[in-house]
């Protein structure tokens, strides 16, 4: 039965380890099953679905800037960035925040997960990984790439980009666009998760810092290795105020649509976990001061949402 | 079973050691988008962006820029139908005189650029056609693999510097004079320091350059590559098909309404591929050259954020959504009442 099921949970104990060996998950006591499902099951579902959507988003943002650039390079196949920037994108500059999301993110604390078991229905009804959501994230990626490319190329066009009169060239535009991509993608992560421990802070801001450190280190290698990146940050870009201002403009403009969407969504069409978070936030003083359970009278909105989820469940069972 | 004996006597627990990390209870900041946060974020962004935009726009407006497209006018009338023929003919007189007036006072240094359009210096095949090793040191003179077909002469003698980028070096020249007095153009320090010091060797001299089919400027073979600043500037390929490259600097001030006369040697062939050539004189500010886009966009985004902040404030004030008011929920408006639990 354990092997036939989608998920088999075995309990290790006095009856031997046979169940444990043929199961997907093993727990020590039967009462741990509640936590396994309601806390870890819910968290895992949310983490994995968010991670996949975010992965599409960040690679679309990066890849589409390359496509737009090709239109301006007569489709000859010249990449907008130095080869090593592109190789290190998914390895160094954007991988750690995704790991932090996939391993550590929590939308609602463990205690509240147990208190509102209906939250588990979000996974059963596949609310967080529906097609509208996936396509929404993908179009966010495409839109971000459009904003990044056109804002960068129009700000840093063909004029001098510094006081000493040097004109823009391929290296500078590549670094400017890539910096905007790395910033935008990591700050988007900061906007999407709502659980910040020191790990998330370290990974997100550390990835951005790692990009600049990489530029300095790679740029100091001899030109036979670093080709177009030789001293590009230290000599060309960092002293240019236009470069930093462009990064600021592009990053904020890229994040604005998503921020607007989230502001509307959490207020006017909140999801179940949004409601629980708000309720926890607004009732937080009473919860901390009294160690006992808060009254089980749920706010009306939570009740309505629960009824909605139950109705869905009933419909599916029919 | 041994376990049950020990639990009776020693109450040995198998519970794993507690740590905040393994139990996922690290102290955390939970970001929740309450109305307060949303509105204050929009206001902060708006209040930062609009001043930055105004300052950038102002800086861009203080830059004085003169752009003069000359590739059409500098063809004599008899050759207007036959430009390619004109430019390739070595006998025709390529000198051309242009005049323009300075609109506002231009403080030195005034930068001279040549601007090319529809010239794809970012084409992959073009960009590959160079040999960085050869440019760097004399001992790599035979490294011409990537430069083909512009790598060696018919006698299999390597061309230094090889490749299409060097071969197509821009060769128009400009001579400036104002009020009858020649303006001195400083052609030093126009290339990046890292290029001059590291990428282009001081022991590499041009050899066999522009023999055969001439594509652009010839180089003086007694000057090492690290001092051939025009070549260095040209070989730092541009990003887009419209680009400017630094030609030189004028270290005198120019007053408003001065009439500048430029004598142009119209040598470079952009007529084959419908490219354009322009001469640009520009001052710079702390933000660089003249480009209003950044300032305008900052102001626009800042304005949009402030507008959104006001919209959200109005929405929250006019259509308050107390936590317990369910009648606005869409599924409540036209759904049948659900049966009680």
Oligomer: heterodimer
Biggest chain contact: A-B, 80 and 84 residues
How widely separated are the two ends of chain B? 48 Å
Which structural class do the helices and strands of chain B define?
Answer: alpha+beta
Query: Helical region count of chain A?
Result: 15
Tell me the Rg of chain B in angstroms.
Answer: 33 Å
Order of strands, main sheet of chain B, comes to 2-10-4-8-7
Helix content of chain B: 25-40%
Order of helices and strands of chain A: EHEHHHHHHHEHHHHHHH
Shape of chain A: elongated
Q: Kindly, what is the distance between the CA atoms of the first and last residues of chain A, rounded to a whole number of angstroms?
A: 25 Å
Radius of gyration of chain A, in Å, reads 24 Å
State the low-pLDDT regions of chain B, or none: 1-9, 324-341
Number of helices of chain B: 10
Percent of residues in helices of chain A comes to: 55-70%
According to DSSP, the number of beta strands of chain B is 10
Strand tally of chain A, please?
A: 3
Please outline what is shown here:
The complex is a heterodimer of chains A (318) and B (341). By secondary structure, chain A is mostly helical.
Relevant terms:
heterodimer, A: 318 residues, mainly alpha, two-stranded parallel sheet, elongated, B: 341 residues, alpha+beta, 5-stranded antiparallel sheet, 4-stranded antiparallel sheet, 10 helices, Phospholipid-transporting ATPase 8 (chain A)
Secondary-structure map:
The complex is a heterodimer of chains A (318) and B (341).
Chain A: E1 9-11, H1 18-21, E2 25-27, H2 32-71, H3 83-93, H4 95-104, H5 110-115, H6 121-124, H7 131-155, H8 170-192, E3 195-196, H9 198-219, H10 223-226, H11 232-237, H12 241-268, H13 272-282, H14 284-289, H15 300-317
Parallel strand pairs in A: 1-2
Helix pairs in contact in A: 2-4, 2-7, 2-8, 4-9, 7-8, 7-12, 8-9, 8-12
Chain B: H1 2-9, E1 29-30, H2 35-62, E2 65-69, H3 83-88, E3 95-101, E4 110-117, H4 124-128, H5 132-136, H6 164-167, E5 173-178, E6 181-182, E7 185-186, H7 193-199, H8 229-235, E8 243-250, E9 259-265, E10 276-282, H9 293-318, H10 330-333
Antiparallel strand pairs in B: 2-10, 3-9, 4-8, 4-10, 5-6, 5-9, 7-8
Helix pairs in contact in B: 2-9
């Amino acid at each position: 039965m354990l092997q036939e099921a989608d998920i088999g949970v075995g309990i290790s104990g006095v009856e031997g380890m046979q169940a444990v060996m043929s199961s997907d998950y093993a727990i020590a006591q039967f009462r741990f099953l509640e936590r396994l499902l309601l806390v870890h099951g819910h968290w895992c579902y949310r983490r994995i679905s968010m991670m996949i959507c975010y992965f599409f988003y960040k690679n679309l943002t990066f890849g589409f800037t390359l496509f737009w650039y090709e239109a301006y390079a007569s489709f000859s196949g010249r990449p907008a960035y130095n080869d090593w920037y592109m190789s290190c994108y998914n390895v160094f500059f954007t991988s750690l925040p995704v790991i932090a999301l996939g391993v550590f993110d929590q939308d609602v604390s463990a205690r509240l997960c147990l208190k509102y078991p209906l939250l588990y229905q979000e996974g059963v009804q596949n609310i967080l990984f529906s097609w509208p959501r996936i396509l929404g994230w993908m179009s966010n990626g495409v839109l971000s790439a459009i904003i990044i490319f056109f804002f960068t190329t129009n700000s840093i066009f063909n004029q001098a980009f510094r006081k000493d009169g040097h004109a823009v060239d391929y290296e500078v535009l590549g670094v400017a666009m890539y910096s905007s991509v790395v910033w935008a993608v990591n700050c988007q992560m900061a906007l999407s998760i709502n659980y910040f421990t020191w790990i998330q802070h370290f990974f997100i801001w550390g990835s951005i810092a790692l990009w600049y450190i990489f530029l300095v280190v790679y740029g100091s290698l001899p030109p036979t290795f670093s080709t177009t990146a030789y001293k590009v940050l230290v000599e060309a870009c960092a002293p240019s105020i236009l470069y930093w201002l462009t990064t600021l403009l592009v990053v904020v403009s890229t994040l604005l649509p998503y921020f607007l969407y989230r502001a509307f969504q959490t207020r006017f069409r909140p999801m179940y976990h949004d409601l629980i978070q708000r309720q926890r936030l607004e009732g937080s003083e009473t919860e901390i001061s009294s160690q006992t359970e808060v009254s089980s009278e749920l706010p009306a909105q939570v009740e309505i949402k629960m009824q909605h989820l139950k109705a869905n469940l009933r419909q599916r069972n029919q | 079973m041994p376990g049950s004996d020990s639990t009776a006597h020693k109450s040995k627990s198998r519970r794993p050691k507690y740590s905040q990390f393994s139990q996922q209870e690290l102290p955390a900041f939970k970001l929740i988008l309450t109305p307060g946060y949303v509105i204050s974020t929009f206001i902060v962004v708006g209040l930062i962006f609009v001043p930055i935009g105004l300052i950038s726009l102002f800086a861009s407006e203080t830059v004085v820029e003169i752009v003069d497209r000359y590739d059409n006018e500098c063809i004599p009338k008899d050759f207007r139908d036959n430009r390619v023929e004109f430019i390739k003919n070595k006998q025709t007189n390529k000198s051309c005189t242009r005049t323009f007036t300075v609109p506002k006072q231009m403080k030195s240094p005034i930068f001279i650029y040549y601007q090319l359009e529809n010239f794809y210096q970012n084409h992959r095949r073009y960009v590959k056609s160079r040999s960085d090793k050869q440019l760097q040191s004399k001992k790599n003179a035979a490294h011409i693999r990537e430069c083909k077909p512009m790598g060696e002469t018919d006698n299999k003698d390597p061309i230094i510097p090889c490749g299409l980028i060097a071969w197509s070096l821009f060769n128009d020249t400009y001579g400036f004079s104002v009020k009858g007095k020649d303006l001195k153009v400083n052609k030093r320090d126009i290339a990046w320091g890292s290029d001059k010091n590291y990428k282009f060797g001081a022991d590499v001299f041009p050899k066999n350059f522009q023999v055969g089919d001439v594509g652009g400027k010839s180089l003086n073979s007694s000057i090492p590559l690290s001092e051939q600043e025009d070549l260095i500037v040209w070989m730092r390929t541009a990003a887009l098909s419209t680009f400017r490259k630094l030609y030189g600097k004028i270290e005198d001030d120019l007053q408003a309404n001065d009439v500048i006369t430029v004598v142009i040697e119209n040598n470079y062939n952009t007529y084959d591929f419908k490219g354009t050539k322009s001469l640009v004189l520009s001052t710079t500010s702390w933000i660089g050259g003249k480009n209003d886009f950044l300032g305008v966009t900052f102001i626009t985004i800042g304005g949009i954020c402030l507008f959104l902040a006001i919209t959200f404030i109005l929405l929250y004030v006019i259509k308050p959504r107390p936590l317990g008011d369910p009648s606005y929920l869409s599924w409540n408006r036209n759904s049948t009442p659900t049966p009680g639990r």
